[in-house]
Amino acid sequence: MYNHQFDAACISMSLAADFSERQSPIIGYGLSNGAIGVVELMRNKSMTLWSLEPMQIQGGNCAPVSIVKTCKLGKKLNIPNQKNTDEPFYDLIVARDDGLIEIYAY
């Protein structure tokens, strides 16, 4: 058993439908201070895959998170100068208290 410490209260989290490359569950989260991110839940520890702190979002003027949803919006990975792949992007949809909706691909 382990825990994952956030810098503020976790307001919303969403379990992704698919697993990571290591076959571990993935959750997207949103915090009361406006921070967001994605965490992989491995057997013995958690690992932050990516996160954005409030100062990295709209110059720090972001509202608290109301709800997050992890999903696939059907996009395909398109890397310039490389062969296209069928690997989809995953998306984190973030709704904020000020009415703003943001979509992040990862």
Task: Kindly describe this structure.
The structure is a single chain. The chain contains no helices and 7 strands. The chain is globular, with a radius of gyration of 15 Å. With about 110 residues, the chain is mostly beta strands. The model has no long low-confidence stretch (mean pLDDT about 85). Strand 3 (about 35-40) and strand 4 (about 45-50) form a beta hairpin. It has one domain (about 10-105). The strands form 2 sheets. It has a 4-stranded antiparallel β-sheet, with no helix packed on it. The protein has strands at about 10-15, 25-30, 35-40, 45-50, 65-70, 90-95, 100-105.
State the helical fraction. under 10%
Physical arrangement of strands within the biggest beta sheet: 1-2-3-4
- Total domain count: 1
Strand content: 35-45%
Question: How many angstroms separate the termini?
Answer: 27 Å
Major sheet size, sense and barrel closure: 4 strands, antiparallel
Number of strands: 7
The H/E string reads EEEEEEE
Average residue-wise pLDDT:
87
Radius of gyration (Å)? 15 Å
Q: List the total number of helices.
A: 0
Counting helices, strands and paired strands, the structural category is: mainly beta
Low-confidence stretches: none
Shape descriptor reads globular
